[in-house]
Write a structure and sequence with these properties.
This protein folds into 3 domains: about 5-130, P-loop containing nucleotide triphosphate hydrolases (Rossmann fold, 3-Layer(aba) Sandwich); about 135-200, Orthogonal Bundle (Helicase, Ruva Protein, domain 3), CATH 1.10.8; about 205-320, Zinc Finger, Delta Prime, domain 3 (Up-down Bundle), CATH 1.20.272. Helix content is about 55%, strand content about 10%. It is built from 16 helices and 7 strands. The chain has helices spanning about 10-20, 30-35, 40-50, 80-90, 115-120, 135-150, 155-165, 170-185, 195-200, 205-215, 220-230, 235-255, 260-265, 270-280, 285-305, 310-320, and strands at about 5-10, 35-40, 60-65, 95-100, 125-130, 155, 190. The strands form 2 sheets. The protein has a 5-stranded parallel β-sheet, with helices on both faces. A two-stranded parallel ribbon has the order 6-7. It is globular, with a radius of gyration of 23 Å. It starts with a strand and ends with a helix. The model has no long low-confidence stretch (mean pLDDT about 85).
Length: about 325
């Protein structure tokens, strides 16, 4: 079979690629033929690399390798690296190995290509999965069209433009919205601009909501939150707001030392949008943004762990705290 090396800060595209590979395995033996290891030690890793599949057909082993590239020290010594190199060169028949490194989104980080492990695994089917820049709308549109094709839907051009305008470059959110739009369009397969307007929340809607909180217009913020609930599940809203708040915190903390152009690269926004956000956030303290993010994160954890009795009320309380 083969060895692969997937890396980059667009974790959703990495996830889709792995899912495509997983779907080719025999579903009757998936628990035996599919394995995920998180930064395994040398002994566990070398065993996985050298163990051929048994009687269950082809096998896929995914090695999440972020830890191997963290810090200043190499994860393995020279003799261990030689063993790893040898095991990959003699990859057993029927075994696919994928080294996956998901880089932090919006931080513009790169892998250290000088590392010996990088030099070893990058010789194989190496592919980078970078985040689409928000201003490269043609690339984003091509991804949406291709993904829509896999879901048996097509977009009218004005619908596609509006969807990109509202969401930006969040591929995972695009995918969720496409699933909803497909249900709305059924039995038709064409997605219209009106459908996007009815179903999808824009970044501006989220900005308006958070801006009301920041300016202490809590009553209006709660009303805006109820409107947003007509289109989104509370967890989806929390996820979108958390992403937005993280970008705002980065902008506020780095604005005095970093140019708008560099900030745009860091947070994945167009430079013009960065300048707009900084202007709107001029009177907002970083401490207030952090506090709101902490409150919402706490509620999100309670909802996901099934500890929340009334998720909507808890989100509302987090907003007005």
């Amino acid at each position: 079979m083969a060895v692969y090396f997937f890396y980059g800060d667009e974790d959703y595209n990495i996830e889709l690629e792995l899912e495509k590979m997983r779907s080719k395995l025999n579903p009757d033996f998936i628990s035996m033929s599919y394995q995920v290891l998180d930064n395994p030690d040398y002994s566990t890793l070398i065993t996985a690399l050298r163990t051929p599949p048994m009687m269950f057909g082809d096998m896929l082993v995914v090695i999440n390798s972020e830890g191997y590239f963290a810090g200043n020290k190499n994860a393995f010594d020279d003799s261990e690296l030689e063993d790893i190199d040898d095991a990959l060169k003699n990859n057993p028949e029927g075994l696919d190995i994928v080294f996956a490194v998901r880089l932090p989104r919006d931080e513009n980080k790169k892998l250290d290509s000088r590392r010996k492990l990088y030099k070893i695994i990058s010789k194989y089917n190496s592919k980078e999965f970078p985040t689409f820049k928000t201003y490269k709308t043609a690339e984003i549109a091509a991804w949406i069209k291709n993904r829509g094709k896999s879901k048996d839907i097509i977009f009218k051009e004005d619908a596609l433009e509006l969807l990109i305008e509202q969401i930006g470059n969040d591929l995972r959110q695009f995918d969720r919205e496409m699933d909803k739009l497909k249900l709305i369009a059924y039995p038709d397969k064409t997605i219209t601009k009106q459908m996007v307007q009815d179903i999808c929340i824009s970044n501006q809607d989220l900005f308006n909501f958070a801006e009301l909180i920041m300016t202490d217009n809590k009553d209006k913020a709660l009303l805006e939150f109820k409107k947003l609930l007509d289109k989104k599940h509370p967890l989806e809203l929390l996820s979108a707001i958390q992403t937005m708040l993280r970008k705002w915190i980065i902008l506020k903390t780095k604005a005095s030392t970093t140019s708008a152009g560099e900030l745009a690269k860091i947070v994945g926004m167009h430079e013009f949008v960065v300048k707009q956000n900084l202007q709107k956030l001029k009177r907002t303290a970083v401490a207030d943004l952090v506090k709101l993010k902490e409150n919402l994160f706490e509620v999100e954890c309670r909802i996901k762990s099934a500890e929340s009795v009334d998720m909507i009320s808890e989100v509302e309380c987090a907003i007005i705290r």
